[in-house]
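FIELD: query
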Amino acid sequence: MFNRNTSLLVSLLLICIFSRALSSIYYIEDIDSLRFALSIKEFDIVKLQPHFPGYPVFCFLVKAIHFIIGNMGISFSIVGGISIFFIIYYLLRMFNTSLKSYEGQYIALIIFLNPLFWLMSNRYMPDLMGLAISLGAVYYLIYANRQGRHLEKGFFLSGLLAGIRLSYLPLLFFPLLKIFFSSNNKKQTLALYFLIGVLIWLIPMVSVTGLGDLIIMAEKQTSGHFMDFGGTIFTEQSLLYRFVFLLKSVWADGFGGYWTSRGFTSMLLSIFLVLQFITSIKDIRIKWKHENKIKPLILCIAIYFIWILLFQNVIYKSRHVLPIILFLCILLIEGQEKYRGKIYSGIIYFYFAILLGHNAVLIKQHQDFTAIQKLKNYISEQRNIQSIISIPLINYYLQSHQIEADYINVEENADVESFSLEKI
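FIELD: result
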């Protein structure tokens, strides 16, 4: 039968799944979530269900679970719970520890209770699953490779990642290229495993969408991402502005740290976080010349940091910082490799207790509807609304919820004023 560590891992998996199922979201939070929700009913990239690159691996997995249980919110949460479990699992492997140890328990809690990880595990989006696959690939490419094993798994997961969360692929550029060009005898094998990972999702997507339509959508959405949709360096050009929002996403959204207009619990969390970071930095400085888990990841996370700072929507969407949050969690774990006595461990567990209460408030807020859902509910209750004037995305959201009206798309305030004058 199971040994103790295996039984603890199985228990952790069940806890991850059931905790996320209990905090599930049963409405569409935003436009991106709407596209993935619609993709479960009909996967159609041409209709932006979801938008390119389609994330077919994630959509297929959620669709399979939804086929069995019939509940969309819980289906997405189950995938989120499984993703949380695998992030913890690969960190345990990376630090060569188990859930029985103090360090292993810290790893489980720092990931399980991370505020943004929790919210994203209930979101109708593939970011957290992509993070789990990214960490698995990093483990096999960098850490397991130290024993000369599992490179093929790392290349396979890298190819698979492109069908789950393409924007996380820059995380793996350095280890992939370094290993590929230094493996004279295994180049073809490694390339084959990467190709298999890609073909698993690319062949079904081409067969469903059609090669011609897929190329058209790829060109249109790629251009739109960088030049039209907002949030990249081409549309929001202040690097300082972008950096501040990125910092806020990591500190306030990612760890629950204090920011303007945040509550008292955020101040407490900030104090305990700073204490943990100081402890970790001291340990890392001592171990730097000999061994630590941070050094091999620095270039990976630096490349990703530059990528999102310039070319991702870090101003409006904090989810792009998930890999940076995970890196900082790894930095925190470095300071917990040894037990520091009852007082220090008591402070750490008190921190997690506060974090649990912080998460409970966030979860309740998300379950109580976002602004766009409240708008939809309000309009649904009105009987005399004949026309709706709004930006195309809002109109798309309302139309998808069967709100019957004459929809008029506008992009600027002047368009609304012009429409008002025409009606006078």
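FIELD: remark
The first strand starts at residue 387 and ends at 390.
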